[in-house]
Amino acid sequence: MDHEEAGDGRHPLATNAISVSAAFEDDTGIAEARDMARTFLTRVQALHGLPVSGRAMGMVQLVVSELVTNARKYAPGPCLLTLEIADGAARISVWDSSTTLPAILAPDPSRIGQHGLEIVAAICVSFAIHREPVGKRITADVMLADDPGGALAGRQML
User: Fold this and answer.
1) CA-CA-CA-CA torsion for 95, 101, 104, 105, nearest 10 degrees?
2) 59: buried, middle or exposed (CB in 10 Å: 19+, 13-18, 0-12)?
3) 143 Cβ partners below 8 Å, 6+ apart?
């Protein structure tokens, strides 16, 4: 697992971005990806003073687990997970080499399985699937702090 972190002042090209990336090549990487998300958000809270609710911590780990699992299951080769902080949200981005875009199926309580992306799209404030020159990238945002005013009501599908 390779990590690259920006925004900590140690890299000469560092910006104000807070991010971490890692490549995962096998199924053991799914647990490592969840651990990476938890560690990243813990550091964001401790080092940068940004609020991270318990709900956000759990939701980010759920989204990371689902997206990395799908990338490992349906695409050949490694996948790349990038976590970053943007506009009060944790942005989760997973790239894989498959050109096949996933479909979010309509809710169906009688269907067994294949509810992962449906759940991810429902809990995130934004969700997008983009073709890349090689493969595709799925990006989802989870608000860091709980918003009783209704952050989820402003959810955007891109």
Assistant:
1) -140
2) buried
3) 56, 88, 89, 125, 151, 152
Q: Can you list the alpha helix ranges (DSSP code H) found in the chain?
A: 29-48, 54-74, 116-123
Taking only the tens place, the pLDDT of each residue in 72-110 is 999 999 999 999 999 899 999 999 999 999 988 887 888
Helices 54-74, 29-48: inter-axial angle, 10-degree rounding: 150
Strands 156-157 and 126-131 come out as: parallel
**Which residue carries 């990806």 as its tokens?**
33
> What are the φ and ψ backbone dihedral angles of 110, each rounded to 5 degrees?
-90, -15
Closest listed residue to residue 24, CA positions, set 15, 16, 36, 33? 33
Beta bridge partners of 157: 127
> Please, which residues have CB within 8 angstroms of residue 148's CB and are 6 or more apart in sequence?
none
Nearest C-alpha neighbor of 56 from the set 145, 120, 118: 145
Closest CA relative to residue 100, chosen from 143, 57, 128, 129: 129
